[in-house]
From TrEMBL:
Bound cofactor: record note: Binds 1 FMN per subunit.
Binding site for CTP: D98, K108, P124, D125, I126, L127, F144, K158, K162
Cofactor: FMN; Mg(2+)
Gene Ontology annotations of biological process type: coenzyme A biosynthetic process; pantothenate catabolic process
Range covered out of full length: 186 to 407 of 407
Family note: In the N-terminal section; belongs to the HFCD (homo-oligomeric flavin containing Cys decarboxylase) superfamily. In the C-terminal section; belongs to the PPC synthetase family.
Keyword annotations: Decarboxylase, Flavoprotein, FMN, Ligase, Lyase, Magnesium, Metal-binding, Multifunctional enzyme
Keyword NAD carried by entry: no
Pathway(s) the chain acts in: Cofactor biosynthesis; coenzyme A biosynthesis; CoA from (R)-pantothenate: step 2/5; Cofactor biosynthesis; coenzyme A biosynthesis; CoA from (R)-pantothenate: step 3/5
GO molecular-function term, one example from the UniProt record: phosphopantothenoylcysteine decarboxylase activity
Organism: Chelatococcus asaccharovorans
Identification of the protein by name: Coenzyme A biosynthesis bifunctional protein CoaBC
GO CC annotations, alphabetized: phosphopantothenoylcysteine decarboxylase complex
E.C. number(s) listed in UniProt: 4.1.1.36, 6.3.2.5
Domain DNA/pantothenate metabolism flavoprotein C-terminal: 6-215
Amino acid sequence: GAALPLAGRRVVVTSGPTHEPIDPVRYIANRSSGRQGHAIAAAAAALGAEVVLVSGPVSIPDPAGVTVRHVETAVEMLAAVEAALPADVGIFTAAVADWRVAGEASQKMKKTGAAPKLALVENPDILATVAKRAVDRPRLVVGFAAETENVVAYAKAKRQRKGCDWIIANDVSHATGIMGGDNNTVHVVTADTVEDWPDLPKTEVAARLVARIARLFQEDRP
Ligand code: C5P
């Protein structure tokens, strides 16, 4: 039969939240489940791609047929992504913490009566860092954007600011429980098009997204 459409292509996917330590037992996190990113990794592997999934801490299993790098923090996630390059495609689904704690305590912090003040520093933007690389930039860089208003307008601006090729935007205002939920309603923003996809299971969003990517790569096959 015909070769799978992503055979011979390398795809790097980030997924899940990051955990940013405060001290050895405490961290800052978010509610990302990793379900969308893991589904994308699985869907790319199903089309024949060699997939590296860089995952923050999640409670879902590693997808079959995918190389999984488990990380905790944003800094570790960036290092694992860079170590996985070169790749043909980068898909940045992770809900990376915007900040980490400056000067993480090496021992468990004790109650003293005065509440501690946490100083935060900005984390690296993994998507923008990879999208703006001079060397080994993947041919297609895809980011996500969760917005509560002006979804497409903000996504277009984010696509340009981050230097990526496509932004998958989702409206997290009306759709209750997109984060952690089964379904996703997305808009695919490219350089010159906007596609409004119907409300779909995350697995179906993943399948359609990687099929669309496969089409892009098949267009330049002889
Ligand atoms: O700026 P914002 O967080 O809305 O951008 C979301 C997109 O950027 C997602 O694709 C997310 O994975 C990526 N991102 C990243 N590193 C960060 C922050 C966001 O890769 N530090």
